[in-house]
């Protein structure tokens, strides 16, 4: 059997591209990291496929194959950077690109759709691929998300204190790591709405360091309208995505707001929405936590982190760099870990997080 080396691939709700890691476990060490942005045409197609489009089955299949080829490029870069060959790697964990996530959808049960072509990825890389991580948890009555709290526990938990891990991707999700218990859920939007607004008004894919948001002012009535979303008051387990928090959601609330709001002030208000929903959940569910460890692309948004820290004076707010793993590597490493859990036939979910009826081995393997 190859050495305890795994590759994890992650392309998240932010649609900023693919992050990959080559990781060794027991103990954890990241051997190499690679990132590839989405080509504009692929990014636009993936974004379109989050909604209703004509011929979506064929378009989804083509986008899945294009994504798998980009994944294969990242795998090649990781092998080159780590000085490894395919036979050195036990498996690749490839999450795919989520385009639908409706875990509680009517009498027929929930469903989740991640575009991926793991067979093509296995063919191109010569490495076993583990994919489709969410479906088994949903089949067991769970939300299928978030899946990273189990890895957060393995990485960040302390026996002497409660720690909260916060991932700021397109969606914000929290993992509350107590000494003997883990809980986790999606708080609401992190970058998904602010990126949309920034691209629409500045032609930029994201608000670098939150500087545009910092230049505006929070509009209290608009913030109140955004915070009135019922999702925010639902009790965990819960998960969400672009199915709820999208352009139509934002535009409906802007339309109901009587006053005209400057674009920079909307951006400031969206940043405050993320900060308030995150801080509110920490205060409700983990008020005695010692620290909040932030990962994901949003960890680079210094304005947002400052707002979260201001709202949580009882917690020390740090990025995951301070705890041994750079913010942009955490989720990809989590999927390398989930691939390893599959290979070892160990559970990858936490039923108290997702609401599943019990622990389950997650994923399906596509042999090389």
Name the overall outline: globular
The main pleated sheet reads as:
6 strands, mixed
Q: Report the order of strands and helices.
A: EEEHHEEEHEHHEEEHHHHHEHEHHE
Walk across the major sheet and give the strand order: 3-2-1-4-7-13
Beta-strand share of residues: 15-25%
Radius of gyration: 20 Å
- Tally of individual domains: 2
CATH topology group of the largest domain: Nucleotidyltransferase, domain 5
| Approximate helicity band | 25-40%
Number of separate helices: 13
The total of beta strands comes to 13
Give the end-to-end Cα distance, rounded to a whole number of Å: 14 Å
Low-pLDDT stretches are: none
By CATH's scheme, which homologous superfamily of the largest domain applies? ATPase, nucleotide binding domain
